[in-house]
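Exam prep: given the inputs below (a chain plus zinc ion), describe the expected output before reading on.
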Amino acid sequence: MKTMNCKQLGGACDKEFHANTFEEIAELSKAHGVEMFQKQDKDHLEAMNRIQELMKKPEAMTEWFESKKKEFEVLAED
Ligand SMILES: [Zn+2]
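Solution:
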């Protein structure tokens, strides 16, 4: 298992996610984002706005996603 926190995944807090694949950790982070969105957490809403800006440019989004994926891949196993 590898660990990345919310901030490392484009979020706003130090909550840690543990997963074997980047796809898995991205799902966990997304679910957490939805939860924070429902709570209307200000920091997470701002972080989501930044990601949404990025999503307007598909290449920028892909680049961001790939760079996060690489970051995950070079992490040491827990
Ligand atoms: Zn968070």
